[in-house]
Amino acid sequence: MPPSADGGSSAPAAAGPLVAVVDDEAALVETVTFALRRDGFRTESHADGQAAWETFGQRLPDLAILDILMPRMDGLELCRRLRSRSQTLPILFLTSKDEEFDRVLGLELGADDYLCKPFSVRELIARVKVLLRRAALPRTAGSGEEEALLAIGDLRLDLRRYQAHWREHELRLTVTEFRMLHALVRHPGHVKTRDQLLHEAYPHDTYLADRTIDSHVKRLRRKFEICDAAFDAIETSYGLGYRWRDDA
Q1: CA distances from residue 178 to 52, 55, 190 in whole angstroms, order as listed
Q2: Euclidean distance between CA atoms 120 and 122, whole angstroms
Q3: Which of 107, 137, 167 is the last residue of a domain?
Q4: pLDDT given at position 146
Q5: SS3 labels along 185-208
Q6: How far is CA 179 from CA 74, 109, 220, in A?
Q7: How many CB atoms lie within 10 A of CB 197?
Q8: Does residue 109 belong to any structural domain of this protein?
Q9: Is 28 left (phi over 0), alpha (psi -120 to 50) or beta?
Q10: Which residue(s) pair with 158 in the sheet?
Q11: d(CA 221, CA 223)
């Protein structure tokens, strides 16, 4: 018997990560939460962004699945508020196929992934697992200081803590943004294609489009420019991809 949208369920009690599903479509929420619980996740659900935000003010889930169009507070605003509290919380958007602008805006606000409706529940579960694995990387990456620190010009990366500093200013990056930045700076001057960056940022996922990479690079540049208005180290190689300038 499927769970109710308020979190009740006849499925076995889960002890896994807590996934919050925020969507005003009751039938969709019922289907998604049941599938998540069947796969070992704990779930909570909210019918609008404001209700979710009130709960998130007390505690954050391990991952949030957000619809874009919702009453009281839409998913874009909820994403913005969540990112103000945590740069590492995995966020996945559910969107309609005709919401390309909102989808891109969601990525620019800091979402890690999106899935278009209608979607396969199996694919949703796969993406949730990918995002949670990536979110766990800062706690497991690196075994020594010599492996954990990378300095390229004015950039300092702590690969163990997933922290980045540019000219002594801390950059608040999501896991996705950090992995993409690391991919660019490992070989300064070398062009990384969008496919290569996609593989670096989403090593277990093959579903995303090139536009996703463009959105993340735009957001990365914006974060650098906040602390350095003259920042120009990430160059676009038109028709190919991006590179980190070797004289930056």
Answers
A1: 27, 28, 18
A2: 5
A3: 137
A4: 42
A5: HCCCCCCEEHHHHHHHHCCCCCCC
A6: 28, 17, 11
A7: 22
A8: yes
A9: alpha
A10: 149, 163
A11: 5
Say which CATH number the domain at 145 has: 1.10.10.10
Specify whether 177 is located in the same domain as 195: yes
Q: What is the pLDDT of residues 109-149, one digit of tens each?
A: 888 888 888 889 998 998 899 888 877 765 544 444 445 88
In this structure, are residues 190 and 115 in contact, taking their beta carbons and an 8 Å threshold? no
Residue 33 has pLDDT above 50, yes or no: yes
Using 50, 70 and 90 to split pLDDT, how confident is the model at 2? very low
Q: Read out DSSP for the chain?
A: -PPPTTS--SSPPP-S-EEEEE-S-HHHHHHHHHHHHHTT-EEEEESSHHHHHHHHTT---SEEEEESS-SSS-HHHHHHHHHHH-SSS-EEEEEETT-HHHHHHHHHHT--EEEEES--HHHHHHHHHHHHHHHHHHHH--SSHHHHEEEETTEEEETTTTEEEETTEEE---HHHHHHHHHHHTSTT--EEHHHHHHHHSTT-----HHHHHHHHHHHHHHHHHH-TT---EEEETTTEEEE-TT-
- Joined together, the tokens standing for residue 13 give 């009690």
- pTM surpassing 0.85? no
Number of domains forming the structure of the chain: 2
Amino acid at site 68 = I
Question: Is the pLDDT reported for residue 182 higher than 80?
Answer: yes
Say whether both 34 and 112 belong to one domain: yes
User: pLDDT band for position 191 (50/70/90)?
Assistant: very high
